[in-house]
Amino acid sequence: MRAVHRVVVLALEGVYPFELSIPAKIFGSAAGPDGAPLYEVTTCSLDGRPVTTGSDFTIAVSRGSEALRTADTLVIPPFTCDSDDARDWLPGDLAGALALLPETARIVSICSASYVLAAAGLLDGRRATTHWKQAAQFQRMFPQVEVDADVLFVEDGRVFTAAGVAAGVDLCLHLLRLDHGSETANRVARLCVVPPWREGGQAQYIERPMPEPEAATTAATRAWALGQLHRPLPLAELAQHARMSVRTFCRRFREEVGMPPGQWLAQRRVDHARRLLETTGLPVDQVAAQAGFGTAVSLRQHLSAAIGVSPTAYRRAFANVPGRRTP
Hints:
By secondary structure, the protein is of the alpha/beta class.
């Protein structure tokens, strides 16, 4: 019988209620083919006592920091703290609680909780993200961390960091996808009425002057391109579909998505290839062709660059995912 994965959510004083609820909703909605839960989610505080939130109510919990000893995954939601002194983000009782974690446990921060991980030295030499509005301060406070403010979440070894608020949903779905495959993650996303993945990164949410109402967008072309991934999609053709010049199309695309068209296309092709590897028995060269990479060698290079494994190794990791089917 497969052991249930234990997710422990640590609620700190001033915790933001929405982000606190994300792990319980996402992981708590995941079930196997027999309907059995795939995760056990426990919310705790440092001392087991009720926690004040960033809103006008208090949350009661039943466990203290001893729950961290059993964690397979620890999630720390953001909380109220505006200090630019790293010591304020890691008081002694919190440092002591983190020391209880098993060495194999995954560690996840949502939004500004990345400050806790950085103050604890868990992000030293790692790539990480936080809310775009705090990225500059974060980088000044923790120069030993490679901050990427353009993405929704970052995976670096066993440490995962998410950008602001709803990016916590994106990251929890990503963890679910890593554990149980795309079909399970997509099913949970549908139950929660959220997209299985979101295009682009934080750049699309940074405050900018609003475009004129009549200004054209690249949204229709992006939707069209997703149905054309099996073939080459030159930049000129994308611009023509959007009825823009190449220069205007590239500028609009970057403004709306946060990355150039070529990078976006490569990511979508990798996503499509991963789904095919997980859910079909197609040979790798056919997966490469359907995803628009042309050859198995090209697919191998792109998949390795994106997630660090070959197509064969990726398929092997998900070979026993419930619901896997062959054509």
